[in-house]
């Protein structure tokens, strides 16, 4: 309702500051969402590095190629999808708009793009599955300290038709995020139903044992949920085979992915362990300040292990040319985070649809005018790159 002009693919990117100015303080949750969506670790150095890395590569267009039959289509783990674009896992979507994860996963299914539900989601696994219908969907795990709880989540994800498990390794406590600290925003989850957890039978038993009624004491139960998956980590590399085998055992071998990889050493370790895929990601620059750009990490990692494991990417993508650069540098698939969460904040379900349809249109037109017919055309030769500075 607030935005009349919605004509650019990067609408959410450019409109959000105005939107926030116009709506500042209208609801307590509004401010929470505003700060939480935008906060970066420390001085935002990693976020800036993520963005700058894209400018060091430029696309080389080719002329007089018939691109009338071009296609953005691809496959991910044997699922045919509209484009190599997925919805990155983002927690507590109802902070941004009451329509929450159900609306987002519905749009993902409509557009035939994979959707990834976060462990910190504010809508249950089962409700998301029902909204997503026949869509391709993944479940992102923040691994609980309690194995019985982990098994319960994996079983629910399997029963609800989630096609892959994505374990996030970079966030077992939130990074030092200046905007959140300054706005005392770290209490955000207390006001919010962490429904992925609150609807879990094992977690509900744990709540009752602690004298918490999860249907009444939503604040206490949500806080306990976050404490069950973050705030100290009871596991490390040694635990990965157990998790991977447990997931594969429950699902009959559905893919197991690790998200948050930035070093070649860690990527090699994933290959050695037999992990199906990795997401090269630095969590949009929200965890380690002053860290390497995710795009630079991608280039190194794809060179080292791209032939041996399914390499995916996220962090900093704001338009189709960023996407194409990541694919040209060796990613097979790219996830989008802030673009759609901004769309959800500004205009709910329609905002998400607009942002993602615009990104698809941006990609289609870019391919047309630059002379690319399909994702197989994206390789190192289509880039002019500045000398490596790492
Ligand atoms: C995230 N991200 C994230 N990742 C994850 O594995 N589980 C989660 O719950 C969240 N939550 C979350 C909230 C918000 C507000 C943001 C911005 C990000 C990280 C996310 O999946 C992804 O890695 C980045 O958002 C990708 O970078 P861009 O596209 O946002 O630049």
What percent strand? 5-15%
Helix content: 40-55%
Each distinct ligand: ligand FNR
Structural class: alpha/beta
Mean pLDDT: 91
Report the C-alpha radius of gyration, rounded. 20 Å
Cofactor: FMN
Binding site for FMN: 89-91, 118, 140, 168, 259, 281, 314-318, 337-338
Keywords: Flavoprotein, FMN, Oxidoreductase
Protein name: FMN hydroxy acid dehydrogenase domain-containing protein
Describe the protein's architecture and organization:
This protein is α/β, with parallel strands linked by helices and 390 residues long. The chain is 44% helix and 12% strand. The chain is built from 15 helices and 12 strands. The chain has helices at residues 11-23, 28-38, 45-55, 100-110, 125-132, 147-159, 178-182, 195-198, 201-209, 218-229, 240-251, 264-273, 294-305, 320-328, 338-370; strands at residues 57-59, 74-76, 79-81, 85-87, 115-117, 137-141, 164-168, 256-261, 277-280, 310-313, 333-336, 383-385. Strands 4-11-10-9-8-7-6-5 form an 8-stranded parallel beta sheet. Helix 6 links the parallel strand 6 and strand 7 (164-168). The structure holds ligand FNR. Its cofactor is FMN. FMN binds at residues 89-91, 118, 140, 168, 259, 281, 314-318, 337-338. Belongs to the FMN-dependent alpha-hydroxy acid dehydrogenase family.
Which helices and strands, and how do they pair?
Elements: H1 11-23, H2 28-38, H3 45-55, E1 57-59, E2 74-76, E3 79-81, E4 85-87, H4 100-110, E5 115-117, H5 125-132, E6 137-141, H6 147-159, E7 164-168, H7 178-182, H8 195-198, H9 201-209, H10 218-229, H11 240-251, E8 256-261, H12 264-273, E9 277-280, H13 294-305, E10 310-313, H14 320-328, E11 333-336, H15 338-370, E12 383-385
Parallel strand pairs: 4-11, 5-6, 6-7, 7-8, 8-9, 9-10, 10-11
Antiparallel strand pairs: 1-12, 2-3
Helix pairs in contact: 1-15, 2-15, 4-5, 4-15, 6-11, 12-13, 14-15
The protein binds ligand FNR.
């Amino acid at each position: 309702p607030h935005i009349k002009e919605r004509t650019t693919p990067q609408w959410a990117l450019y409109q959000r500051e105005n939107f926030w100015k116009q709506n500042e303080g209208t609801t307590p949750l509004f401010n929470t969402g505003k700060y939480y969506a935008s906060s970066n670790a420390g001085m935002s150095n990693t976020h800036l590095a993520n963005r700058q890395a894209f400018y060091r590569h430029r696309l080389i267009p080719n002329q007089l190629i018939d691109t009338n039959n071009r296609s953005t289509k691809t496959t991910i783990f044997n699922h045919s999808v509209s484009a190599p674009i997925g919805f990155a896992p983002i927690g507590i979507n109802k902070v941004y708009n009451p329509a929450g994860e159900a609306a987002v996963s519905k749009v993902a299914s409509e557009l035939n793009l994979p959707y990834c539900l976060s462990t910190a989601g504010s809508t249950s696994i089962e409700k998301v599955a029902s909204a997503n219908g026949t869509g391709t969907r993944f479940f992102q795990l923040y691994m609980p300290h309690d194995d019985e709880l982990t098994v319960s989540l994996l079983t629910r994800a399997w029963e609800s038709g989630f096609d892959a498990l994505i374990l996030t390794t970079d966030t077992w406590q939130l990074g030092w995020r200046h905007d959140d600290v300054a706005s005392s925003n770290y209490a955000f989850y207390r006001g919010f139903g962490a429904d992925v957890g609150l609807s879990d039978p094992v977690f509900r038993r744990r709540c009752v044992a602690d004298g918490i009624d999860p249907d009444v004491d939503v604040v206490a139960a949500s806080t306990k949920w976050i404490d069950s998956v973050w705030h100290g980590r009871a596991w490390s590399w040694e635990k990965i085979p157990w998790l991977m085998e447990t997931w594969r055992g429950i699902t009959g071998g559905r893919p197991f992915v690790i998200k948050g990889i930035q070093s070649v050493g860690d990527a090699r370790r994933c290959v050695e362990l037999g992990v199906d895929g990795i997401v090269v990601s630095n969590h949009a620059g929200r965890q380690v300040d002053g860290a390497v750009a995710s795009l630079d990490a991608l280039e190194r990692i794809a060179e080292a292990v791209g032939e041996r494991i399914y390499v995916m990417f996220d962090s900093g993508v704001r338009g189709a040319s960023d996407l194409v650069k990541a694919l040209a540098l060796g990613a097979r698939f790219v996830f989008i985070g802030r673009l759609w969460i901004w769309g959800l904040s500004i205009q709910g379900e329609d905002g998400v649809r607009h942002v993602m349809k615009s990104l698809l249109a941006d990609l289609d037109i870019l391919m047309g005018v630059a002379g690319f017919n399909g994702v197989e055309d994206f390789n190192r030769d289509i880039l002019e790159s500045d000398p490596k500075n790492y």
